[in-house]
Amino acid sequence: MALRNILKDGDPALGKVCRPVTEFDEKLAQLLDDLADTLHSTDGVGLAAPQVGVLRRVFIMDFGDGVIEAVNPEIVNTKGAQEGPEGCLSFPGEYGIVRRPQKAKLKAQDRHGKWFYFTGEDLVARCICHENDHLDGVVFKQHVIRMLGPDEY
Ligand code: ZN
Q: What's the 25 CA to ligand 1 centre distance in angstroms?
């Protein structure tokens, strides 16, 4: 078990475009395991590699029924729209209303390089879009319609 430090607002790594993963090796497996340990030490549902300073196209999500690992992910389809509160482990204590698709279909590779599809709705779709944005150096505050006050969440 290894926890990595989650970078916070203002760290330049959060604004960088990440590079694709090309080696499906032990180092990638270690990164994915560490991301899971780090995510599970928080109350968050998703964590992207750049948030721990690794500029590679990798994120994970966990909604309570197991870790979903996405390597070199692409959002291939979206449907509908939802507006709701969103936060980020790199912006502790900050929440805002963000508009996201209601449904999002992801294409990604697993830790062995095998491609798979994954479709999520509601919170899952929100998380897919939020984490995928991190890989292009985009953070949720760039999409916020309105920040929430401390009495609103
Ligand atoms: Zn985030």
A: 25
